[in-house]
Specification:
Blueprint lengths: L13 E3 L5 H17 L4 E5 L6 H12 L3 E7 L2 E9 L3
Parallel strand pairs: 1-2
Antiparallel strand pairs: 2-4, 3-4
Helix pairs in contact: 1-2
């Protein structure tokens, strides 16, 4: 089965959280979401890496409880990043 890759995905705003600790990753993720809602960007990418999953877990907590997040999912071709759709109401 051939994977379908979204060619526009690489044009989305993204943030790379490699090297951040749990607290700083949470703060930067919240700021990134807030900034992109102001800029009216519907889709963003958060690069958290694979590692031990600590940063990914923290990012998912932020995404789960943030009112500006419509939905989110791991990228099927790269599990080290998450694709987020924002609510622009």
């Amino acid at each position: 089965m051939k994977k379908i890759i979204d060619p526009f995905l690489y044009n989305c705003p993204s943030i790379d959280l490699h090297g951040y600790d749990r607290v700083l990753a949470r703060i930067k993720t919240e700021e990134f979401i807030r900034d992109n809602v102001k800029l009216k960007n519907k889709k963003i990418i958060i690069i958290h890496g694979i590692g031990e999953g600590i940063i990914k877990e923290e990012v998912f907590k932020v995404l789960k409880y943030n009112k500006n997040v419509e939905n989110y999912k791991l990228n099927s071709s790269n599990i080290g990043c998450t694709i987020v759709n924002l609510r622009l109401d």
